[in-house]
Amino acid sequence: MKITRAYPIGFCKGVNLAVQKVYEVIEMYPHLPIYCIGQIVHNDIVNQDFVKKRVKILTVNKEEAIDSISQGVVIFSAHGTNPLLIQKAKEKNLIVIDTTCFYVKKEMQVILKYIKEQYDIIYIGKKNHPEAQAICSLSSHIYLIENLQDAKQLHLENKKIFLTNQTTISILDLKEIFEYFKKIYPSIIFGDELCSSTRLRQEAILSLNENVDGIIIVGDKHSNNCTNLYLLAQKKKIPSIMISNEKELDMHWLKNKQHIVLFSGASTPLSLVQAVENTILEWQKEG
Ligand code: SF4
């Protein structure tokens, strides 16, 4: 059986910077409490390591989390945060570390520009995802939709409409929803905000040929980009599994496979992919 890796693999740039930042903060402030407001990245193994190194991850409502902290360092996640909450933390004299990814910052700037020009914004994203929550906090003129069904329920009077999206959404959903809105609002402006890490990983799945008979996506089930990779693999009709780590590998599934391709989400450390690959190689040797 042949095993290959799809690229890019391991952490994306935004996650890498955020994770490094947390470790720097741990070193820099040995005597202060350190809090992450929400999961810094959607990967349990990464978050568990932060916790071991005395970081407290607060997963309650973000505003309540800020209210509950009286001193120390607060780290805001790579997904982005409501700017008013960041301001609130600063006003409490907390040390604020904002790890918002540069792609999310750019997305926020673009949306604010259109809001200023009195556009309504249709935003394709995942309800309850921290990035979508951060974006929707920017204005009451942002309408969050998840899918085509939501799109069909939306009726806007404003002739000025800007359509955009969460950085980690599925390329195929994006295309389908854009085509729908183009018919309803011919003058709609579309700003594609998929980040390059998401786009390249999804394109890698879509470009696989028929010689591949198995896809393994290594990543956390809470990660939006991992879930989208898995759904795209299903659409390609290639047998696929999504696992958090090598212990979840089902060896029966591997039997008779000719060519397996390993993918990872943007918040999956490369070491986890390596561990999965090593486990398969060991199993092959034993077989
Ligand atoms: S997945 Fe994309 S938007 Fe999210 S942190 Fe990585 S590069 Fe940034």
Verbal overview:
- The chain folds into three domains: 2-10 and 197-286, 4-hydroxy-3-methylbut-2-enyl diphosphate reductase, catalytic domain (Cobalt-precorrin-4 Transmethylase, domain 1, 3-Layer(aba) Sandwich), CATH 3.40.1010; 13-100, Rossmann fold (3-Layer(aba) Sandwich), CATH 3.40.50; 103-194, 4-hydroxy-3-methylbut-2-enyl diphosphate reductase, catalytic domain (Cobalt-precorrin-4 Transmethylase, domain 1, 3-Layer(aba) Sandwich).
- It is built from twelve helices and twelve strands.
- The chain has helices at residues 13-28, 44-52, 62-68, 83-91, 102-116, 130-136, 148-153, 171-184, 196-206, 224-235, 251-254, 270-286, and strands at residues 2-5, 34-37, 55-58, 73-76, 95-98, 120-124, 142-145, 161-165, 189-191, 214-218, 240-243, 259-264.
- Helix 10 links the parallel strand 10 and strand 11.
- The model has no long low-confidence stretch (mean pLDDT 96).
- Iron/sulfur cluster (SF4) is lined by residues 12-15, 78, 101, 103-104, 167-168, 195, 197-198, 225, 266.
